[in-house]
Design goal:
- There is one protein chain.
- With 471 residues, the chain is an alpha/beta fold.
- The protein has 2 domains: 279 residues, Alpha/Beta hydrolase fold, catalytic domain (Rossmann fold), CATH 3.40.50; 126 residues, no CATH class.
- The chain has 13 helices and 14 strands.
- A 10-stranded mixed beta sheet has the order 1-2-3-5-4-6-7-8-9-12, sandwiched between helices.
- Helix 3 packs across helix 4, helix 6 packs across helix 10 and helix 12 runs antiparallel to helix 13.
- It comes from Streptomyces gilvosporeus.
- Keywords: Hydrolase, Membrane, Signal, Transmembrane, Transmembrane helix.
- InterPro entries: AB_hydrolase_Est10, AB_hydrolase_fold, Peptidase_S9_cat.
- This is Alpha/beta hydrolase.
- Pfam families: Peptidase_S9.
């Protein structure tokens, strides 16, 4: 026991269980499959400590030539580095020193995203790689996947320290329009047709835009792309179903070309999904490890070779001239958000207040009560609130919440459509009853009934707009 008490603390403090230095340098090396892994800690935007791994080839480059470097920026969500281990290892095996790090958890959440702060983190990673022995500081670039496809160009536009930019599955549209395309595509894959996808991509997106609750929803990547002077490699999987690949490629090509960037390479990876991994249709993943209970898929054939050979050419001072491969056909074309976003907020407030107002004040004088009025108020409020929750839940939790599906409609949406018909029927019955028995009611009761019937009448155009009365 005495021997163990002396040895264990020494073992725990050995290089195999090291702690990174504050400046991002690291003395510990872990050799795995011919790679050297250094666990590092560095300070990102606003001084937040970030933890990552630098992966480098174990064999030194010939003639002691310093290697290029690359910083990996992940997609939306928590973004732990383990999700991108395949990419990090593949780049390192190709002779590129790679930094992959855990995304910040401070200043980033489902409801709050700051691309500027994420760009600061990216540039902090670039500074770390530029300071490491064996890395050529003039040849350190950024790789941005999905959300990182917005962040990497922003970081590169801010600093001349970034030598090149690679985007994978980057969108040329703003985040809200991209997400509506994504959800519409996935809903149609689940054979949900008709008015529900239109309600998600139309009125619900309008409401999110009007309230500003969709993080960075209005961020326009085009002005940032126009400021890039570094060589750019923009990649999309042929089966990308989360951002519109053809539309995005066109925006990248036209924006960068108009700005005078003559080193823009646009490619589409065959057999690849949004993340550049193997798939049959974009909705499945073939091979590879599991992450968060789901299979990531193995890297698509030739994807790493495409990126690594391009990086080596740029590092050698031979950045390829601009070129673009043919774009795949998109099943769904994205649509800009319609105008009049203030209407959605005003209409919801008016209908909710109209139905709820009668429900709150309509309990007096039961002998002279209009019998269909209270059911109308309750059903109307339930339909308005339920419609909002049904469509917003798709943005929050994904298209999976739309199950089960009956006759091309989510069951919840089908019930809401039936409720909408009931609201209109009760509005007509309430109006007829109130008129027939108008002499029985006090002036205050007639005023409440008039407000309720008017709300029911206004419900009709609102229900048509949201597609509750459409097939």
């Amino acid at each position: 026991m005495a021997l163990l008490s002396a040895v264990v603390p020494l073992w725990l403090s050995s290089p195999a269980a090291h702690a990174a230095n504050a400046d991002g340098r690291d003395d510990g090396h872990i050799r795995h499959d011919g790679l050297i892994r250094d666990e590092v800690t560095f300070r990102g935007g606003a001084g937040l400590p970030l933890h990552g791994t630098v992966v480098a080839p174990a064999s030194p480059s010939p003639h002691k030539v310093r290697a290029p470097g690359i910083v990996l920026l992940g997609g939306s969500g928590p973004g732990p580095r383990t999700e991108y281990r395949q990419e990090a290892d593949a780049f390192a095996r190709s002779g590129i020193v790679t930094l992959v790090f855990d995304k910040r958890t401070v200043g980033y959440s489902t409801l709050h995203v700051d691309f500027g702060l994420l760009a600061d983190d990216a540039l902090a990673g670039v500074r770390l790689l530029r300071s490491r022995a064996g890395v050529d500081p003039s040849k350190v670039g950024l790789w941005g996947f999905s959300e990182g496809g917005w962040v990497a160009p922003l970081a590169a536009a801010r600093s001349g320290d970034v030598a090149y930019v690679i985007t994978l599955g980057g969108s040329g549209l703003n985040p809200l329009r991209t997400q509506t395309w994504n959800l519409t595509t996935h809903l149609r894959h689940r054979r949900i047709t008709g008015s529900f996808p239109d309600a998600v991509a139309g009125p619900t997106a309008q409401l999110l835009h009007a309230t500003g609750k969709f993080p960075e929803g209005d961020y326009d990547p085009s002005p940032v792309l126009a400021r890039l002077r570094q060589p750019v490699l923009a990649l999309w999987g042929v089966y990308d179903n989360q951002v519109p690949p053809a539309e995005s490629a066109r925006i990248f090509r036209e924006t960068l070309g108009t700005a005078g960037n003559r080193h823009v390479t646009i490619r589409f990876l065959p057999g690849a999904a949004h993340n550049g991994h193997r798939t049959t249709d974009g909705f499945d993943r073939l091979g590879g490890p599991r992450y968060a209970g789901k299979r990531l898929g193995a890297l698509a054939s030739g994807s790493v070779d495409t990126m690594a050979s391009w990086v080596r050419a740029v590092a050698a001072g031979k950045a390829p001239s601009s070129s673009a491969s043919p774009a795949p056909r998109e099943q769904v074309v994205s649509a800009p958000l319609p105008g009049g976003t203030g209407y959605e907020v005003a209409a919801l407030a008016l209908l909710s207040a109209g139905f709820a107002g009668y429900a709150v004040t309509g309990f007096r004088r039961p002998a002279t009560r209009c019998r269909p009025a209270r059911p109308l108020a309750a059903l109307g409020l339930t339909t308005v609130v339920g419609t909002l929750l049904c469509t917003l839940s798709v943005y929050v939790a994904g298209e999976g919440v739309a199950a089960p599906v009956i006759a091309g409609r989510p069951l919840a949406w089908l019930l809401l459509q039936l409720c909408a018909v009931g609201v209109l029927a009760l509005t007509a019955v309430t109006a007829a009853s109130a008129w027939r028995h108008r002499d029985r009611y006090t002036r205050a009761t007639r005023t409440r009934l008039l407000a309720l019937v008017t709300t029911g009448a206004l419900f009709l155009p609102w229900a048509l707009h949201w597609g509750l009365l459409a097939p």
